[in-house]
Amino acid sequence: MIDEKLQPIFDEVLRRNAGESEFLQAVQEVLESLGAVVAKHPEYAHNALIERICEPERQIIFRVPWVDDRGEVQINRGFRVQFNSALGPYKGGIRFHPSVNVGIIKFLGFEQIFKNALTGLPIGGGKGGSDFNPRGRSDGEVMRFCQSFMTELYRHIGEYTDVPAGDIGVGSREIGYLFGQYKRLTNRYEAGVLTGKGLVYGGSRARTEATGYGTAYFVQEMLATRAADFDGKRVVVSGSGNVAIYTIEKVTEFGGKVVACSDSAGYVVDDEGIDLDLVKQIKEVRRGRISEYAKLKGSTASYVEGGSIWEVPCDVALPSATQNELTGKDARVLIEHGVLAVGEGANMPCTPEAVKLFQEAGVLFGPGKAANAGGVATSALEMQQNASRDSWTFEQTEERLAAIMRDIHRRCAETADEYGKPGDYVLGANVAGFVRVAEAMEALGVV
Ligand code: GLU
């Protein structure tokens, strides 16, 4: 429920952004958390501060023409939404996926404002992407697409302005092509303009692992509030991309047994525990499908085409694929199977109904803004290293990441306590993130 004082703000957001369902869903969730804050701190509602937070500072939409391997001209649409720069340069990933549209980029950019604020680091919020589908495209096609995308984007970004990174469909290969084209167009070796770079040209150690590792650290902290840990727990991680792979790695290190993972076509169950080297081989090297896992692994593994991975009984569920992948129906099944904790590795993977069901059932629930903030936090550490022309060890970087995740957990938990909702990490994350941005916006005046 949105507080009656904030309802007119949401009505106006609805009117101006009609049809952008994911964006409206993300705004609604944050506004539902803010009623108690404006009651306590009316100054945060002055000068249309909340209205301003809901309106991107700048939105760029552009044509991306490129030539495929057959010599045909292809056209895609590129986006960059520069949502809020009160705390630092716009920061957030780029997503290449056929489902990308302005509403999806706005939802991701909006979430990013609060996530980035929660890290405690000096980064604003933004997001970008394209409806380009990398599946089945050759390296040459991906390179030409990235070069065309950057040929427009380069004029809008910079180490003090906006610092993109990866997201779904954008990994180290794409970041390399994007950085190469930026360098060529500007004639500047400006390492801090992109993060998620390869180690040989200014990347940070542990950035590849950071989102998944961070999610595991965050969920470990949540479990500790109930005197529990990952040891011996059955865990299901949806997805098999960057976030899922490194979540599985860290959860396994913590003693958990990950028994299932998935891709958009289906899921695999392996009661021996997922063989991560095999998943990495299939997904990172061959860029193949998860169905190959069952064929290669043999009798302990099975592949289920379609269907819901959430039917696999588990103690901890870590949705790490994409938005709205875990519905109310899935939540009921998980609760029936006795799930103890849910941590969002992806951005907004649980529908509002699913979140409500988990919270009502007393399941520990870590929202993406908090649980998956380790990726962007380590991006900010990459920016620090670039600014000081330094390069840290893996251990040093992972230690910083772990400390940041513990801090985020503490900030969310303390904020939830302060507002009389102990254990409500959704409220804690939204409010703690908002307060930091609101204080900066207030100080900077009406801009
Ligand atoms: N796309 C990731 C996220 O949602 C990482 C963003 C970044 O590193 O800038 O947080």
Radius of gyration, in Å, reads: 21 Å
Proportion of residues in extended strands: 15-25%
DSSP strand count: 12
CATH superfamily of the largest domain: NAD(P)-binding Rossmann-like Domain
Hetero groups: glutamic acid
Q: What summary fits the major beta sheet?
A: 7 strands, mixed
List the helices and strands and how they pair.
Blueprint: H1 7-16, H2 21-40, H3 49-53, E1 58-67, E2 73-84, E3 90-96, H4 102-118, E4 125-130, H5 139-153, E5 162-165, H6 172-186, H7 207-224, E6 234-237, H8 242-253, E7 257-263, E8 266-270, H9 276-285, H10 291-297, E9 301-305, E10 316-318, H11 328-336, E11 341-343, H12 352-360, E12 364-366, H13 368-371, H14 374-387, H15 394-418, H16 425-444
The structure holds glutamic acid (GLU).
Glutamic acid (GLU) binds at residues 91-93, 165, 167, 195, 347, 375-376, 379.
